Amino acid sequence: MPAAPTHATAREIILEIVRNMRDGLEPLHYSALAPAIYNVYLHPDDLDRLHGILPRIVQEARQALDAQVAALNRRPRAGGRFRSSRIPTTMSSRAISSSTRNWRCRRSRSLARGR
Asked: Which of 5, 9, 24, 61 is within CB 3.0–4.6 Å of 35 for a Cys-Cys bond?
């Protein structure tokens, strides 16, 4: 019997945006830039189901991105006792910032269900 299709939850979408930010950090000489634009592709069923709360999802995604940048900037720098295993060693001493003060999250329909 085929598995029932899974639906993307708002929380999963937000967590994926934050993961994408961490994975997309661009190291500069003294700092690292986080991507500022996030394109989110959702299955039409998910987009329809979440349509009424999309502004709230975007608001909380922005809040989560700000919180993640703040957390990354609070971490001990290179030479400290602790270092996040998610941040490459080459970036452990760089301050993280966004190339813009406003995160942009765009939504689009995807034809295929998947993550």
From this structure: 24
